[in-house]
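[stage:ingest] chain + small molecule (nicotinamide-adenine-dinucleotide)
[stage:ingest] validated
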Amino acid sequence: MKQTTIGVIGAGQMGQGIAQAFATAGFQVILNDIDRQAIDIGLQAILKSLTQLHTKALLTEPCEVILARINPHTELASLVKAQLVVEAVSENESLKMKLFTELDQLCPEQTILASNTSSISITRLAAATSRPDRVVGMHFMNPVALMKLVEIIRGLQTSNQTYQTIVGLVKQLDKSTVTSKDRPGFIVNRILLPTINEAIFTLSEGIASAEEIDTAMKLGANYPLGPLALADYIGLDTCLNIMEVLLKGFNDPKYRPCPLLIQLVDAGYLGRKSGRGFFEYS
Ligand code: NAD
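[stage:predict] done
[stage:export] tokens:
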């Protein structure tokens, strides 16, 4: 299985982590992004993360050996060699649909196409291809290097063989799986994002400051990170996109995104990745 070449599309925070996880487990990785600068930043972030893991004696090989397994490309055609492609581009359904259609035309018919989507329907992405049985959701958690879970989402058409192959691959990454039916937000984000959204309503209603809300949930509910700091970490644009998918998918107003979240995204305050969200980052 280690001969398997893994394609990762999107060199943002999730794509970086996914590429690093597969390379650390010994796989050859093709890391693709339309933006060359995003790839360069991504490779630097991977080296930084590997160096930190090396310092803590958590790697069995030198950082350079692992990094050398990651081959950066801006052309989608580079992915033709991959036996599994994991898509991790921005959380936008039309963008992902277009990409899955293109990948379907490009990749050999046995190639499995996976999406790291946080909330979008795997069944719909699969239906945009001629291999719906070989399309699956592979939802890594952020930061990938530290988080042990990968949520596996079976679309209506995902075959048992595809599912078993992916579960086996995740084991090789030394991570655990949970399996979710294909419903908006799956398991983790169906529960997590409404909590974050409620924290934003709590802030916008002036009930407490951002610091107090996060402290309350850390000390009062044993959260390792407050919900607003976590939103900044995930990216406020991604949080908004997920709430919109939940609202549309369930047609239930309880999932309406807080207007403050919408306003922050409109202002370009996207959290850590833009330097400002609910908190400021240097
Ligand atoms: P990000 O904004 O950090 O990165 C997205 C990357 O995709 C960018 O580098 C962008 O240049 C690239 N991209 C956009 N269009 C592309 C295309 N057509 N071809 C190639 N590259 C393209 O986003 P992220 O936080 O890494 O999220 C990526 C995916 O992972 C989303 O679906 C998100 O919902 C999911 N996810 C995010 C988190 C999180 O905590 N941020 C956790 C789990 C899953």
